Amino acid sequence: MTVADAGLTERDAWIALASVPGVGERTFWALIERYGGAAAVFSEVAAGKRIDAGEARLTALASKGLRAAVREPLAVGRRLHEMSLWTITPLDQGFPVRLRILDPPPAALHGWGDRSAIDAPTMVAVVGTRRPTPAARVLAARIAKRLTEVGAVVVSGLAIGIDGAAHAATVAAGGRTVAVIGGGHAHPGPRAHRALVQALLGQSGAVVSEHPPDGVPTRGTFPRRNRIISALADATIVVEAPARSGALITAGLALEQGRPVLVAPGRPGDPATAGCLGLLRDTPARPLVGLDEMIVDLGLDSRVSEAGARAPRLSLEAALSLLGPTERAVAARIAAGPVSPDTLVSATGLDAPVVSGALTLLLMRGWVQAMGPSYLPAGPLLAAPRSS
After folding, report:
1. pLDDT the model gives residue 212
2. Residues 6+ apart with CB under 8 A from 46
3. What per-residue string of b and e applies to 276-289 under the rule 16 or more CB within 10 Å gives b?
4. pLDDT for res 388
5. What are phi and psi of 236, to 5 degrees?
6. Would you state the pLDDT for residue 140?
7. Strand 86-88 and strand 109-113: pairing?
8. Are 81 and 12 in contact (CB under 8 A)?
9. What are the structural domains of the chain?
10. What is the pLDDT of residue 336?
11. In the chain, what's the furthest Cα-to-Cα distance?
């Protein structure tokens, strides 16, 4: 079937042109500008005319792809249908407003799941290294859970590491999450996350990509998908990032887009958080100092009040039951009032390194706060009444 036989609409032609191998973002928009639309480009190709992309320059691969698309203009549409993918383009009214700030926006966005998830009222990106420390993985999960509690959709990149921890924690908390992948949906992220993909789709989440269904992810496609992550999100949180982490690209793009960035600080000299410290030193990014503070800094604190008014508070005993034995023993003593680390060691009978580890986890989870040399109850420990 040829273009003439198919009677392609501009939208059909647009999606087909965006899917032609070798026609990248620069070439696509150069052709749209030069010929006035995708259908006009295909008409020129069908007439045997030489296609000129100006400075973008049409590669041999792109020229071959255009000729193939003219012969089978509905092939991409059939493939999208086979894979149960929806597609939205800048031609559509429902194209996310947040993505329209990109210059240029993605030519097309294909997705599985609930399309409304990419245009939710509040969306926050949680990103970081693919090789996180255990503490960073826990922090990412706590951040995602807290965001879910205030109704935010969590956005990330479905990579192994911080991304996966954020997606999984959102699903576990019953929330919605959007995964932006670096290739087509025939290659939906790491194999280890296939069950996670099904779980997030089952909770009205979405998996989206600007690449055609069979597009193969490459080293260059992952940094490009980061601009979509940052643009979809109202704010970006960097949990842990070394000096050359892709999460720094996402954070930098978010700042360029005028979006707030919160960064979990790390210890000076620690390679795992060198990128985080660099962001805090060299950019307007702000430190993430606690989960309660995070909600305030993101302007979501009114939702906390609303949620608190609707939901009954856990008793102290019920709150403590959510912790492991070691953390529970430390938290129970802190709930009684301010206490020093030495007193905790004495009161719990635990070794000092064990108490120190428990304190670190409780701080990250927002259950305690440090005040000088002492630790005070916070979060669930502060809000939870004692059962009678």
Report:
1. 93
2. 2, 3, 4, 70
3. bbbbbeeeebeebe
4. 41
5. -125, 135
6. 93
7. antiparallel
8. no
9. 3-79 (no CATH), 98-306 (3.40.50.450), 316-383 (1.10.10.10)
10. 83
11. 86
d(CA 377, CA 54): 64
Per-residue pLDDT at 383? 52
**Distance between CA 191 and CA 343 in Å, rounded?**
47
- Least Cα distance to 337 among 275, 388, 381, 291 occurs for 381
Of 117, 122, 200, nearest to 158 (Cα)? 200
pLDDT at 309: 39
Residue with the two structure tokens 């000076």? 268
The predicted structure's pLDDT at residue 379: 66
Q: From CA 193, how far away is CA 267, in angstroms rounded?
A: 31
pLDDT at 16: 94
Helix/strand/coil (H, E, C) string of the chain?
Answer: CCHHHHCCCHHHHHHHHHCCCCCCHHHHHHHHHHHCCHHHHHHHHHCCCCCCCHHHCCCHHHHHHHHHHHHCCCHHHHHHHHCCCEEECCCCCCCCHHHHHCCCCCCCEEEEECHHHHHCCCEEEEECCCCCCHHHHHHHHHHHHHHHHCCCEEEECCCCCHHHHHHHHHHHCCCCEEEECCCCCCCCCCHHHHHHHHHHHCCCCEEEECCCCCCCCCCCHHHHHHHHHHHHCCEEEECCCCCCCHHHHHHHHHHHCCCCEEECCCCCCCHHHHHHHHHHHHCCCEECCCHHHHHHHCCCHHHHHHHHHHCCCCCHHHHHCCCCHHHHHHHHHHHCCCECHHHHHHHHCCCHHHHHHHHHHHHHHCCEEEECCEEEECCHHHHCCCCC
Which tokens belong to 243? 């000096």
Between CA 159 and CA 162 the distance in angstroms is 8
In this prediction, the residues of the chain whose per-residue pLDDT falls under 50 are 1, 305-313, 384, 387-388
Q: What is the pTM of this model?
A: 0.77
Residue that the structure tokens 């660099």 belong to: 278
CA distance 128 to 284: 18
Contact 225, 181 (CB under 8 A): yes
pLDDT in the model for residue 345? 92
Length of the chain measured in residues: 388
Nearest CA to 19 among 36, 1, 42, 40? Answer: 42
- Phi and psi torsions of 154, nearest 5°: -90, 130
Encoded tokens for 174: 């019953």
